[in-house]
Specification:
Length: 164
């Protein structure tokens, strides 16, 4: 991967990673599956506060592991899938789900505070797993949209520079 490719893929990965952490936190908060969310209360009016509380409760090891697996999964999809929008959206959604599943499976229980086994006591809890899968699929869609938007802007800037 070249430096110019990282100009778009790195910011897109950061946005997708934040979406993964706080998107899953929003779903977990809304459905009241976390103790910090239960203390604040559930509902749309309290969703920003509960989302932040749940996201803040997630341990740093869980966040970093998910981010690393997400970067590897997105790198693989960039290399292995064709550069057509529908395929990339699907491939990156699957990559997001794979990264989330990998993080849920690999995180040691002692380091998973507020995430997966540290949240519910079960590694793949049936109550929280669908929420993680939904947010992970959204992560892939967000990454693809952010990457494509950045690449489109970069092409426009490069074209303008060549004209002048």
């Amino acid at each position: 991967m070249t430096l110019s490719a990282l100009r778009c893929s790195f910011p897109a990965w950061i946005v997708a990673w934040a979406m993964g952490v706080f998107g899953s936190s929003a779903l977990i908060a809304y459905f009241g599956l976390s103790a910090p969310a239960a203390l604040i209360g559930t509902g749309f009016d309290r969703l920003p506060a509960t989302t932040w509380a749940v996201g803040d409760e997630v341990g740093p090891v869980a966040k970093l592991l998910f981010g690393a697996l997400l970067a590897l999964a997105f790198f693989a999809t960039q290399r292995l899938s064709p550069d057509r929008a529908p395929i990339r959206y699907c491939a990156n959604a699957v990559a997001g789900i794979a990264a989330m599943a990998g993080a849920l499976a690999l995180i040691p229980a002692d380091y998973s505070r507020g995430f997966g086994i540290g949240l519910t006591g079960a590694r793949f809890d049936p109550a929280s797993l669908p929420l993680y899968v939904i947010s992970a699929a959204a992560v892939g869609l967000v990454f693809t949209a952010a990457l494509r938007t950045c690449q489109r802007r970069r092409r426009a800037i490069d074209t303008t520079r060549r004209i002048h």
